[in-house]
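Fold it.
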Amino acid sequence: MSEISVYDDAVFQLLEELYRLNHRKWKKNILSIMTKGEKRNYKQLKAQLEKVPDLLAYRCIQELVNGKVLRRIKEEKQTFYVLEDENIYIRDILEAIKQEIY
């Protein structure tokens, strides 16, 4: 059994606050990458979120999957993410987001 540190609560609170402050911007970045229509793996998406902690980057991707904006595809031993086919109507919105970021 692992030890519980007295600093765990402070670390989790810090991560939660970072997420609360930045998750919209991070999700916009992920969606702007995905508007190109290509499938991407976690490593490719994370590379665009350079200074985002892994846990928080994964949380953003997971929320987009749960919200049915992204779809997870398993091919052989890898997992890829693509825009959900049902959400083609949001491509215009995503393009606008892409223009806003750049």
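The two ends are 47 Å apart (CA to CA).
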